[in-house]
Recover the amino acids of this structure.
């Protein structure tokens, strides 16, 4: 597949430029190497000449007569043969020349190594002028460190080669990334074409099926029969709701064995009404161990729901539906918990069962749950129906319709639960300021309503009323110490409030340490 890619042309141009630059650098290296070889050759010739003159017997008389000075110091007598002095001077010159040659070779090698190391390090970081990157080469301790002002042509060519190598590596990386991106785009394009082909095939099949239906002479009565059959399948699904085995509820292990002489259900209702949810949960659990009933399961589910634990509330509601699948309040409460947990499928199933099991609305034909509830509303408007419709509107994010239904339900039958739902709907729609009013109404009815205190604190945080938010979070923890995650909300609010001295107490989860600064029950 051909494509116009200006980036590809730029990469080819850069490749040609780097190849030409590399050829020039190689030529410079060869030239510099030849010059160095010539210089070493001349040095070797001079050394050979000096050695030949030194070893000539006609030039030196080796009959040396030493003299003693100070009894132990050997010195040459200046009155003896001058040829001997010439021999000694020539021998010393030969040794000096040889040492200088060796030193120059070592110095040149170390200089090259040092400069190459300096250049390599410089090119690995950023392209700066070579003179700024030059480092003093390491030399033998017996030789002076040479002072280099400008690099030799050989080192310049080496630096250029290194630069070209880095650029070639970058070019290779760019080409690789470009090729990978090209393959990815081609793959995505192929997938898109495949999806379009599948859609076109499905449309062709639908159109073909419709034409076959028309050609086969299917009457409206037959189509109506097929529609009724589909409704019957929905009825079967609704009637089977609650027939699934409920999930097992894990009882509190620390409870003592229940006594048959104690009315745990009555105690549970009293504690639930007063807001002592932890004690109420223990009462209802004890009552279930003696005699499990749908009403007890329903109260236990409401305790967990008000403790902001919808998962446990669902287990209790499901067990209650297993005891009595016609309990309308339990079906409605279960649908609300499903919505809170994001289980839209089960929420619609439970609401459909609520409609079909309600004697006032069971004549409504099965259809979309929202349309079913709206049809029920035309027959008779009740607070519970309005709450159910408000839950469905919440599920579909129709905030205005949900707020209208819940407000009407609260006017007909005020309760702490409906006020909390109304406040949560307003907050979810982005109107946290209006939500405060209905949260406070719910708390007026039930001051120990932990879930509503939590919602109130979140709305205060959204409005940046952090001090009020801290007080609400502390109230939640005081009412239900098992809601450990609220400590995280509290730390965030304290940080926004810049109450650094209280963060340590929050880290220790020291609730009593906050009473000196905040008022809560």
């Amino acid at each position: 597949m051909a494509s116009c890619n200006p980036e590809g042309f730029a990469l080819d141009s850069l490749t040609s430029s780097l190849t030409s630059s590399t050829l020039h650098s190689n030529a410079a290296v060869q030239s510099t190497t030849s010059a160095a070889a010539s210089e070493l050759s001349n040095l070797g010739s001079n050394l050979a000449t000096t050695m030949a003159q030194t070893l000539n017997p006609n030039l030196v008389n080796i009959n040396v007569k030493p003299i003693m000075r100070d009894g132990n110091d050997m010195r040459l007598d200046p009155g003896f043969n001058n040829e001997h002095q010439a021999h000694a001077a020539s021998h010393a010159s030969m040794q000096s020349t040889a040492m200088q040659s060796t030193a120059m070779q070592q110095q040149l090698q170390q200089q090259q190594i040092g400069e190459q190391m300096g250049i390599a390090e410089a090119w690995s970081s950023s392209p700066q002028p070579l003179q700024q990157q030059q480092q003093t080469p390491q030399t033998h301790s017996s030789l002076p460190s040479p002072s280099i002002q400008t690099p030799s042509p050989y080192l310049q060519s080496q630096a250029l080669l290194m630069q070209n190598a880095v650029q070639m590596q970058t070019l290779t990386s760019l080409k690789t990334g470009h090729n990978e991106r090209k393959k990815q785009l081609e793959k995505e394009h192929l997938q898109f074409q495949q999806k379009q082909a599948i859609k076109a095939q499905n449309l062709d099949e639908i159109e073909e099926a419709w034409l076959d239906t028309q050609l086969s002479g299917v009457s409206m009565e037959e189509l109506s029969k097929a529609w009724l059959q589909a409704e019957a399948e929905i009825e079967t699904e609704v009637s089977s709701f609650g027939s699934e085995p409920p999930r097992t509820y894990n009882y509190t292990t620390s409870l003592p064995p229940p006594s048959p002489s104690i009315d745990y259900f009555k105690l549970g209702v009293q504690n639930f009404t007063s807001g002592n949810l932890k004690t109420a949960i223990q009462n209802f659990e004890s009552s279930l161990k003696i005699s499990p009933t749908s009403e007890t399961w329903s109260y236990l589910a409401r305790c967990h729901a008000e403790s902001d634990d919808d998962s446990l509330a669902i287990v209790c509601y499901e067990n209650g539906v297993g005891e009595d699948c016609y309990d309308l309040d339990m079906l409605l409460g279960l649908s609300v918990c499903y919505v809170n947990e994001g289980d839209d499928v089960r929420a619609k199933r439970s609401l459909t069962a609520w409609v079909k099991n309600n004697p006032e609305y069971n004549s409504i034909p099965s259809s979309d749950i929202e349309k079913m509830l709206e049809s029920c509303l035309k027959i008779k408007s009740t607070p519970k129906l309005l709450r159910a419709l408000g839950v469905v509107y919440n599920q579909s994010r129709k905030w205005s319709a949900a707020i209208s239904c819940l407000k009407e339900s609260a006017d007909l039958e005020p309760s702490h639960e409906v006020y909390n739902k109304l406040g949560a709907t307003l907050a979810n729609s982005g109107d946290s300021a209006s939500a405060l009013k209905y949260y406070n109404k719910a708390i007026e009815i039930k001051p120990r309503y932990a879930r509503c205190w939590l919602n109130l604190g979140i709305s205060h945080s959204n409005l940046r009323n952090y001090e009020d938010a801290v007080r609400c979070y502390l109230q939640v923890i005081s009412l239900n110490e098992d809601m450990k995650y609220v400590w995280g909300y509290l730390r965030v609010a304290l940080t926004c409030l810049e109450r650094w001295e209280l963060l340590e107490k929050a880290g220790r989860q020291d609730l009593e340490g906050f009473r000196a600064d905040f008022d809560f029950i």
In short: Strands lie at 66-69, 73-76. The two ends are 74 Å apart (CA to CA). DSSP finds 20 helices and two strands in the chain.
